[in-house]
Amino acid sequence: MKPINFYREKFIDYLNTQVLAQEPKTLYDPIVYILNLGGKRLRPISVLMTAELFGCSYEKALDAALAIEVFHNFSLVHDDIMDDAAVRRGKTTVHEKWDINTGILSGDAMLIRAYQLFENYEGETFRELAKLFSSTAIMVCEGQQYDVDFEEQEEVSLEEYLKMIEYKTAVLVGAAMEMGAIVAGADQKCRKQIYEYGCLLGLAFQLQDDYLDIFGDYETFGKEIGGDIIENKKTFLYLTALKKASADEAKQLAYLYSLNPEDTTQKVETVTTIFKNSGIAEITQAKIKEISLQAFKVLEEMEIPEKNKAIFREFGKKLMNREN
User: Fold this and answer.
1) Burial 193-202 (b: 16+ CB within 10 A, else e)
2) Three-state SS across 122-154?
3) 293: which strand partners?
4) Who contacts 252 (Cβ-Cβ below 8 Å, separation ≥6)?
C-alpha cells in the first residue's frame, strides 16, 4: 500500500478528468463548484485504500470512489438548503451562490451521476456495489430526517442521537470501505469487518465535527462556529450538557434552544459558556477516543498484514486529531 496522500492525489487527478464544465452551465457549473471546494476526501480515499488493502489496484476502484464523493456532495448541497446554511468549507453554499431551485436540480443530477458510475463495473461486482449503495443512500436519508425531526422533538436521548449520526454520516464511511473490498473481491467476513471499522470511524468523525462546531476555529473549520447552537441542533454536546449542567444552567440551556433570535451572538456565547462549565469539551473528547479505540480493535482482529493495519491506523488517527 501507498501513503495516504498518494490516494488523495490520485483521486483528485481522476476527479478533475471526470467532472468538467458542460451544457447547460446552469446545471453543471454548481456541480463542478461543489466538487472542487476541497474537503478531506475521506470517503473516496477510503474506497481506494481498501481496494489495495485486499490486493486490488486502486485504479479499479476510482469510479466507485467518485460515486461516493459525488453522492456525499449531493447530500451536502441538499442539507445546506434544508439548514439554510450560507457557508460550506469556507465558501458560499450552492443555493446561496445560485438559487434554491438550482441547488435542488444540480443535486438531483449528482445523485443520478453517482449511480451511473457503477455501470462501469460488471456482473456480480456491479450488483453488490449497487445493492450496498442503495441501502446506504436510504439510511443517509433516514438519518437526515431524524436530524430534522429532532429540531422539533422536545426530548431526544443520547441513544437516538447516536443512531441518527450513524445513519446520516457513519454508514457512508463504512460503505466506502466495503465498496473498496467489493471491487477487490474480498470475502464476506472481510467486507463485514472493514464496514464496521469504517462506521465506527464515521461516528467518531461526526462527534469531532460536533465538537469543532463549538470549540473549533472558523479559519480552519470552514463553517460558521456555533452553527449547531443557532439551529437548535440537539447534538451530543447539548444532550450531555442537559445531564451534566447545574439545574439552573440546564433550564437556561433548554430555554435558549427554544429561541431563534435575530442576533445570535449572545445565544452562542451563553451556550458555549454552559458547555465549558459542564466539562462537555472533555466528555466529548473522551467519547471520541472511546469509539476510535473500538474501531482500532476491529482493525486489529482483521487478518491482514501488520504494515497495512498501520496505514489504516494512521488514517483513523489523522481523522480524529484534525482541527478542521
Assistant:
1) bbbbbbbbbb
2) CHHHHHHHHHHHHHHHHHHHHHHHHHHHHHHCC
3) none
4) 270, 274
pLDDT-derived band of residue 40, with 50, 70 and 90 as boundaries? confident
Contacts of 203-206 spanning 24+ positions with Cβ under 8 A: 203/162, 203/165, 203/166, 203/169, 203/170, 203/291, 204/288, 204/291, 204/292, 204/295, 204/316, 204/319, 204/320, 205/42, 205/169, 205/170, 205/173, 205/319, 205/320, 206/165, 206/168, 206/169, 206/170
Q: What angle do CA 203, 208, 212 make, to 5 degrees?
A: 150
At what angle are helices 236-244 and 247-256 packed, to 10 degrees?
A: 150
Hey, what CATH topology would domain 4-320 get?
Answer: Farnesyl Diphosphate Synthase (1.10.600)
**C-beta neighbour count of 154 within 10 angstroms:** 8
* Boundaries of every domain in the chain: 4-320
Task: Output the pTM of the full model.
Answer: 0.92
Alpha carbon distance 194, 131 (integer Å): 17
* Of 116, 136, 123, 139, nearest in space to 179 by CA: 136
Using the predicted structure, report yes or no on whether residue 17 has a pLDDT greater than 80. yes
Question: What does the pLDDT look like over 135-162, one tens digit per residue?
Answer: 999 999 999 999 989 888 889 999 999 9
Residue 251 cell numbers, joined:
433550564
Strand partners, 87: 92
**142, burial (CB in 10 Å: exposed 0-12, middle 13-18, buried 19+):** middle
